[in-house]
Amino acid sequence: MNRIKSTFSIKNLENISGIKAHTIRIWEKRYNLLQPERTDTNIRRYSLSSLQKLLNITLLYNHGFKISKIASLEEGEIPIMVRDIALKSTSEQVAINALKLAMVNFDYVMFDATYDEIASKYEFDYIFINIFMPLMKELGILWQTGAISPSHEHFITNLVKQKIHIQTELIQRKQTPQENQKVFVLFLPENEIHELGVLFLNYYILSQNYKTIFLGQSLTTESLNTVMTFSDSLTFVTYLTVEPNKEEVDGYLRDFQDTILEGTQSSLHILGPLQMLINPATLPGQVKLHPTFETFRLEFFGEQIFV
Asked: Are 236 and 199 in contact, with CB atoms under 8 Å apart?
């Protein structure tokens, strides 16, 4: 299952590059930009190098280069021009495309170079919200449709985690939380392993000079009782991506209220895509949904900063 995907259909190329299959066929025929192999039933199959080339071409094309000009370039000129544009551009989409190219190439050097360039222009909060999150959402769709393999997604996910961990450690080393402030407990429910969202929330809360207790992924509700010995006034924060599933999520929240929150001043705050399956009218009294990071941030930390 985790083998690196090495051949792609024209539909895969369309999904990953954003270039319509019809246009790809025209570019092949008119400019000989790609040379697909054919199956016994005459279906196009593209190599990993063809996908890499198409992503490079797409970045140049979306940056104003005519396809005839791109076709006239020497093979080695295209990646050089792409790197130059990616590192100088202020466009979020150009940065996302450059990171996708780094993913396809399994090129952490290009990932780091792209990240360093955008980090010279933007704060980490902005990069995560406006570049990393849209990138991961897009890659999730590509993985579900088979356009990329789990190896690709894991490669990028772990590089993004690395950046969050670095930023978190920098803050922790210089942080001096004030006494009598809110304490945030960040965790993921049992069987939930998608931790990018909760890792970022931990970083952001620390950046606001609050104390956090970061517990990570896949915790049973009962195990959180131990944390209640620290205080009966804790702000629990979780980020639900796939678990608890649709059939179990309402029961999970009722159990959390009964097991952890009942009779305390604590509360549970939920972010993440799975909350769309939760009916706000049935929420226990000490549980709150946050449709976006911004609504969560506004409730606890003040004025809006992202538009």
From this structure: no
